[in-house]
Design goal:
Elements: H1 30-38, H2 44-51, H3 65-77, H4 83-92, H5 94-99, H6 107-116, H7 118-134, E1 142-151, E2 159-161, H8 162-194, H9 205-239, E3 247-249, E4 256-259, E5 265-276, E6 282-288, H10 297-308, E7 314-316, H11 324-332, E8 336-338, H12 355-369, H13 375-378, E9 395-397, E10 402-404, E11 410-421, E12 424-432, H14 434-438, H15 443-446, E13 455-458, H16 462-472, H17 475-498, H18 509-530, H19 532-539
Parallel strand pairs: 1-7, 7-8
Antiparallel strand pairs: 1-5, 2-3, 4-5, 5-6, 9-10, 10-11, 11-12, 12-13
Length: 540
């Protein structure tokens, strides 16, 4: 070993450790900041109310919720989510030992704390948000909203059809009834032999009681799975949409089988978050079992208002959030939306200044001015999913209630229709001019069947969409929408890659809502640590 660095502290050497735990960590260690935040005035009311939930006059004194919430939140921040790993950290990691002041709760205590105190744990999200707001890190000038599929604590093998669940439940009911009768018979027989008094336990009672308890828990999950199937079926009937598959997970019935970005269908939850674009602070979270983000925009904005006390001035989201009722609701809230057209997942693709885009913008400008357009220019107009000239190339004349097509022809009102969608009842007016389409030089670019002609539908929310398209086609609109990719999407990546949260560790909607709140709060705490001087200026 000659020439190599020698050990500075041989293992058999007697050492003198620091006499104070306070001296074991540097003064600028992040755990000190986390502890300082939790002891600030913003958290006083929450912990005062939390203390009242405990019965302190009976049994062994419990751990203070400030310590248990701190160790769990700090563990989430450092990528330690398991209660067993947190227990080990209480013995092995000096930062956790310092945070807990030498207290070492076992994993069962830590797990039970999170299970039994979901509401106050979620309240800490608002308290951290309050600190960020006081420090000037929350502006609410613009909020970006997005959702991600998060795996439930249930495998694909736990998913069964309604008929299979009913069949198995029937057998389980019979087994429970038989086991209960056997248990009662054993107790009666043992009592007749040994009497009703005395410290005796009938042989096999403990194992039988354990089996019965396990079977009843399974019975409860099966009944819950059937209820979830019925609820989802009823929701789709009310919305007038295609009924979902009659399947559910018997491990976590409140989760739902839905495809993720990789196209794999398995039990998932839809985790939503809203991020303030100023400093990336998460200002609202929700978890649900909806397979898409349709209909989530308004609830998330209301959650932002509940958490922050005010609504954002602007909101951006991807195309799945773009529905007529949602756009109308945003305007009623005095907000300004930035969302791409429905079906356009990537948003506006303009702004790269390519020759093709410049020509397309020039062609659309000709149409908007009502000037004649050539076949070559028509080929450059925006296309829909079917590669036909898209609706924005048709100009609506509100005074005459008609549309003008790119070639200058008038599309008049034909008839109205009404149908029910998940987002609400749509009342559509249809416009067309089959005669002009039959001889139009660009019919092949515009009509599926030139003989029948092109038709344009207009519902009661079209004015909201037109205002949105005008914003999204402007340089300012594209710039503001781009902030979404710089804020909310990185937060999802941070949760999944940085914190390692790709799968929930708990079961049931309320439990995973608490867990998602803990994840997003950890991200907000990290933002506070990065802006520590601003935080210290307001909490002292």
């Amino acid at each position: 070993m000659s020439g190599f660095r020698q050990p500075e502290m041989p293992r058999d050497q007697i050492v003198l450790w620091s006499e104070r735990l306070e001296d074991a960590l540097p003064v600028d260690h992040p755990v000190r900041h986390v502890d300082h935040i939790l002891h600030s005035e913003s958290f006083r009311e929450t912990f005062r109310d939390w203390e009242n939930d405990y019965m302190l006059s009976e049994g062994k004194p419990p751990y203070h919720p400030r310590y248990l919430s701190a160790v769990y939140r700090y563990g989430m921040l450092t990528g330690v989510r398991s209660s067993r790993k947190l227990e080990a950290a209480g013995y092995n990691r000096i930062d956790v030992i310092w945070l807990m002041a030498g207290q070492c709760p076992d994993h069962a205590t830590i797990a039970a704390f999170v299970k039994d105190h979901g509401k106050p744990l979620r309240r800490l999200f608002r308290d951290v948000l309050k600190v960020a707001d006081l420090a000037g890190l929350v502006k609410l000038e613009q909020v970006a909203i997005d959702g991600t599929k998060m795996e439930a604590d249930a495998g694909k093998g736990s998913v069964h059809k309604e008929e299979s669940i009913q069949k198995y439940l029937g057998k389980l009911d019979e087994q429970i009834e038989k086991l209960e009768a056997e248990w009662q018979a054993n107790e009666t027989h043992e009592a007749s032999l040994l009497g009703d008094e005395g410290p005796w336990i009938p042989k096999g009672t403990e194992s039988m009681e354990r089996r019965l308890s396990q079977m009843k828990r399974k019975q409860e999950r099966l009944n819950q799975a059937l209820k979830e199937i019925a609820r989802r079926r009823e929701e789709n009937v009310e919305a007038g949409t295609k009924p979902p598959k009659a399947i559910a997970s018997v491990t976590d019935p409140e989760s739902r089988v839905m495809p993720d970005k990789e196209g794999k269908s398995k039990p998932n939850y839809n985790a939503q978050l809203a991020v303030d674009t100023a400093h990336g602070v998460v200002v609202a979270t929700q978890v649900n079992d909806e397979p898409t983000d349709c209909g989530q925009l308004t609830p998330m904005l209301k959650e932002v208002e509940r958490q922050c006390g005010r609504l954002p001035q602007e909101v951006s989201a991807d195309s799945q959030y773009n529905t007529g009722p949602e756009l109308a609701a945003v305007e009623e809230m005095k907000g300004v939306g930035f969302l791409p057209d429905s079906g356009d997942r990537s948003g506006p693709r303009k702004g790269e200044n390519s020759e093709e885009e410049k020509k397309a913008e020039a062609a659309l400008a000709v149409v908007e001015r009502g000037e004649p357009i050539t076949v070559e220019q028509a080929a450059l107009l925006p296309k829909d999913r079917d590669e036909r000239i898209d609706k924005p190339a048709f100009t609506y004349d509100a005074e005459n209630d008609t549309y003008r097509c790119p070639m200058g022809q008038t599309l008049k009102y034909v008839h109205s229709s009404q149908d029910r969608k998940k987002s609400g009842v749509m009342i559509r007016r249809q416009y067309g001019n089959g005669t002009a389409c039959a001889t139009c030089p660009i019919a092949s670019l515009c009509c599926k069947d030139p003989k029948k002609g092109r038709t344009i539908n207009r519902d009661q929310y079209e004015e909201h969409r037109e205002r949105l398209r005008a914003r999204m086609n402007s340089e300012e609109g594209r710039r503001k929408y781009k902030k979404r990719r710089e804020t909310v999407e990185p937060r999802i990546g941070w949760a999944k890659r940085g914190l390692g949260v790709r799968r929930f560790m708990r079961r049931g909607l309320e439990a995973v809502t608490t867990e998602w709140s803990l994840v997003t709060t950890a991200m907000n705490v990290a933002i506070l640590l990065r802006n520590w001087e601003k935080v210290m200026a307001v909490i002292g």
